[in-house]
Amino acid sequence: MTLRLFGYIALLGSIVLTTACQTTTSSNSTLGEKNPEKAVQLRTQLAAEYIRNGQLDKAKNELDNALTTNSRSVEANAMMGVLLQQEGSPANMKKAEDYFRRALSIESGNAQVRNNYGTYLFQLQRYQEAAEQFKIAGSTLGYQQRYRSLENLGQVYLRLNDKVNAEKSFRQAIQVNRNAVNAKLELAELLYGQQRFTLAGQMYEDYVRSTDQRNQSAQALWLGVRLARVRHDDMGMQVLANQLRAQYPESVEYKTYLQLKNGSEAVWK
């Protein structure tokens, strides 16, 4: 199963301004004197850009300055959690939780922080706790990325082997956003596993229309191969298998295809 948890640095609505990295430290200081809250916002945005580019030390400096200015900034605390999680060492992973919790203690209704804290918990395999965070974020009306939290919730249920609730979550994600492509793919996979091949094929085709035939993941191509086999569509199956080989020759999916291509129908299912 491929994880598609919403990106670590998606904590701000419009997260990175293209002009942000052109701002100098001195201008930040001047801004901080005139408008401290604006300075905190700008430093947090700069930190997000630095994290995106892998410049973690620079991000840490910006966030330290932001939190010195305002230790109760929800965005700066949450972004510090993201930064420490991104760095990934045991010590920083432990510290990251403190920042996520601090952000939520300041603003418990912040759905984006809930989603990113859920991502953190998922990474630590604390699935029940992650589910609670994604449930809250996924039920927060007005949260623009609500469908992604529902997709994430579905992934948690898959890890818990709760396919009924996983299917429910993926369907909810699609209801919220018809372009929830990850939910479409995972739902098609679940339907295939239930041998509801017609519905699985329809959902897979919907996924392909949403993503473009050439941009399919290894998981999607492998599902397409299996669905083509069920339909006895030898040509379609071969086209997708060739695409899988060309784009993902080292993937688990292609290696599985090589192992099964001469197997019986029962083995494939």
From TrEMBL:
Residues 1-20 form the signal peptide. PROSITE patterns: PROKAR_LIPOPROTEIN, TPR. InterPro entries: CellSynth/LPSAsmb/PSIAsmb, Pilus_4_PilW, TPR-like_helical_dom_sf, TPR_rpt. Keywords: Repeat, Signal, TPR repeat. It comes from the Bacteria. It holds the Pfam family TPR_16. TPR repeats lie at residues 147-180. SMART domains: TPR. This is Type IV pilus biogenesis/stability protein PilW.
